[in-house]
Amino acid sequence: MEEENTRIYNVLIIGAGKIGAFFDQPGSENILTHAHAFSAHPGFQLAGFVDSDTGQAQKAASIWGGEYFNNLDEALHKYRVDVVCLAVPDEYHYPYLQELAHRNINIIFAEKPLTKTLPEARKIKQRYSSLPISVQLNYSRRFVPEIITLRNNIRDGLYGRYLSGTGYYGKGLLHNGSHLLDLLLSLLGDVSDCRLTGVINDFYDDDPSVSAVLTMAEGTPFFLQSIDCRAYTIFEMDLLFERRRVRLIDSGFVIEEYEIRESPLFAGYRNPLVVSEQRTSLSKSIYYAAENIYRHLDKDEPLYCGLDDGISVLTLCHQLKEGLQV
After folding, report:
1. How many other C-beta atoms can be found within 10 angstroms of the C-beta atom of residue 45?
2. Model-level pTM greater than 0.70?
3. How far apart, in whole angstroms, are the C-alpha atoms of residue 45 and residue 158?
4. In sequence order, which residues have a C-beta less than 8 Å from that of residue 91 and are 6 or more positions away?
5. Which strand (E) or helix (H) includes residue 55?
6. CB-CB contact of 14 with 81 (8 Å)
7. Is the C-alpha dihedral spanning 196, 200, 204, 206 positive or negative?
8. SS3 content of the chain, % helix, strand, coil (to 5)
9. Residue 199 forms beta bridges with which residues?
10. How distant, in Å, are the alpha carbons of 37, 81, 127, 134 from that of 30?
C-alpha cells in the first residue's frame, strides 16, 4: 500500500497452530501463515492470538507480536477487532462461526472447509445473510495472481472450448480434494453431474479420498482421481482446450502451457507442444488474501473466495459423499 493515510485494521487470530503461526518465521521469503500475512501487510495490526492451549498462544505472540488471550471474550473486550482469522481444526469451524455471528467484527477469514457438513454450512449461510459480517475462505489458489490470469484467459475464450481434464489429489476429499474442486469451479464454472468411481481411506477415517467423473455445465468431463497419500503426495490438474493444454503441477507452484501445432513429422496430425513454464507465487497466496480483505474493507471491493464459494464446493463434496451410500 502506498497511500500516506493508510487505515489500520486490527486482526485477531483464533488458533495458534501451524497455519496460524508456525509454518514460517518473520522475515521468511515465503508467507505461509495468517500471522505472517497480516503482520507483513501495512494495513493491518496484529492484536494477538486466542488458543485453547494458552502456551501456544503465548509462543505465537512472542514471535509475531500482539498479545495472547485465554479466550475470545478477553480479546474482544480489550480490542476493537476488525478481522478474525479462524485457524482452528475443521470440527471447530461451525461453533466458532456461530459464536462470531454475535460479535462486532467486520470480516472472518476462515480456513477451509467452511464447516464439516453441508447442513452446518447452510445454517451459517442463513445466519450471516442478515449480518454486516463478511466471510472469506482460504482456498489459497483463488488469490494467486498467475492463476487469476489463467482463469481470466479461460473465461475470455483465449484457449477455446474446454474438452476434458484430470485432477490428482489425496489425503481426504474435504481436506485436500476440496482445494482441487474449488480450483475447478473457479476456472471452469459449475458441475452439472458427478459419478463416483472409487474410494480410499488413505488418511482420515471420516474423510475418504474419492475418485469420480464430473460433468461440467457444457457436458464435458473432468476426471477426479484420488491417489493414496501413503504412497506419495500429489496435487495436479491437467486441462485440455481446443487451442491450449494447461497443466498446474507441483501443487500449483508451476503452470505449464502447451500450444496446439501441426506435427513436423506426420501430416494432418496436431500435437500439444510446451511453450511456457511459469513459476507462480503460491507461496505468498495468504498475503494476497490479506490484500483482498484490505481492499474489501477499505474500498468495498469483492472478495475472491466468499461464503457462496465455500457453500458451492461443500455442496459438491456432499454430492460425492452421497455416492458412497448408494
Report:
1. 17
2. yes
3. 41
4. 116
5. helix 54-64
6. no
7. positive
8. 40, 30, 30
9. 210
10. 10, 26, 36, 27
Residue type, 25: Q
Residue written as grid cell 507462480: 280
| Residue the block writes with cell 459449475 | 190
What are the cell numbers at 52? 485453547
Could you read off the pLDDT tens digit of each residue along the chain, which spans 326 residues?
Answer: 444 568 999 999 999 999 999 999 999 999 999 999 999 999 999 999 999 999 999 999 999 999 999 999 999 999 999 999 999 999 999 999 999 999 999 999 999 999 999 999 999 999 999 999 999 999 999 999 999 999 999 999 999 999 999 999 999 999 999 999 999 999 999 999 999 999 999 998 889 999 999 999 999 999 999 999 999 999 999 999 999 999 999 999 999 999 999 988 999 999 999 999 999 999 999 999 999 999 999 999 999 999 999 999 999 999 998 877 64
Alpha carbon distance 323, 108 (integer Å): 32
Cell of 196: 463416483
